[in-house]
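Let us work through a complete example step by step.
Step 1: write down the sequence.
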Amino acid sequence: MKLVFAGTPEFAAVALAHLYAAGHDIVLVLSQPDRPAGRGMKLLPSPVKQFALAHGMVVAQPRSLRLDGKYPDEALAARAALELVQADAMVVAAYGLILPRWVLDTPRLGCFNIHASLLPRWRGAAPIHRAIEAGDTVTGVTIMQMDAGLDTGDMLLTQAVPISPLDTTGSLHDRLAVLGGQLMVQALGQAEFDQLQAVPQPLAGITYASKIDKAEAAIDWSQSAQTISQRVRAFNPFPGASTLLAGETLKIWSAAAGDGAFAGGQVGGQIVALTPSGMVVAALDSTLIITELQRPGGKRLASAEFLRGCPLQVGQVLG
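Step 2: predict the structure and record it as tokens.
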């Protein structure tokens, strides 16, 4: 099938690789403009652009697709390119730009989206983070026929995936990225023979996964230990849950709610024990066992190793 692909991060690059391996003719790739990254803040191409160029694909990077927006010349050039290639379908995965109606109507079969949740739960920008943060035990991938709304289009294929108590956004992302690529290949195969059945999303159960803000990283020790542990997993690898110790920001990469009753008598964030399995800290209703953390400029370390280089005392208060 002749395809246009639109995507930017690694999640999308995995899908692009699956489409390429399946033998689809990818005639145009759209990706976000190169962004500054790293200590030197050099402009770096997106993972999608890197894959596309390495495999001889044509890449366009408009800053907007709105003909009446801030960059109308770039939108017009993108429109001309899309009309020229006469694609059968456009596949979209974590692109980062809103598709106006003219884009949705250009491919013969319209635009198909890979969304990393079981819609209508977790529409929006950060479905993987929010599922873990909320304590969901199941998520999945939805292949959707795109419309003008925010993740409101009809569902074409879905597949559920369990969320384990040890999953982070990083580990779940990797599984869902592979599944998304596989499901999209399946969906396109069915679309070629008019075998896809579009199912409207139910009106019940709609939730929104708002974009992750770095300010959310700070741990609130007045929350329950279970809530904090979910947020630690949700913010790994980005932006990384954090807390303060004597004015220094510590990143908390792994933690779990403690077993047993809460003794009480401590303030939230107070270190109540230092054990071989981790640093035990008081939260709202129980304790949080921190098992991996990091100082500014340092490496991620298991708690026992961290404490050898940064001795802490029972009674000290984090945050």
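Step 3: interpret the result. The chain has a mean pLDDT of 95.
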